[in-house]
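I am going through a labmate's work and have reached the protein record below. What it holds is a sequence and that sequence's fold in token form. Please read both lines and tell me whether the tokens look consistent with the sequence. Do not assume that whoever made the record got everything right. Thanks in advance; the entry in question is below.
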Amino acid sequence: MRAIVGVAVAGAVGALIRWGLGTAIGQRFPQFPWATMAINVTGSFLLGLLFVVLTERTTASPAMRLTLTTGLMGAYTTFSTFSLETFRLMEDGAYAQAGLNVAGNVALGLVAVGFGIGLGRAM
């Protein structure tokens, strides 16, 4: 139950941070999606930092790791998870899998958003 509450509360905080930062950057620089890029890059950095701190430098409880990584960072950006997973594949020497992960996520994501837009417009 502690993990569920932690993820829920941290998720709300992460979502609010994303919204606030996204709004602030988006209003200042509306000509390019800088807000999304800033959120993806800072989220990737923070998840990498949290990963090391929570798994290699401290003995954080599983509930705390879940709260901060899945709750806070998951609501802030899922791109950070994609980045961490890709980095870990490269770190393990699985370069083909890392490349497939990048290409697959980008290509399939674009196809999926296209289908979603098409379906939404057809409704």
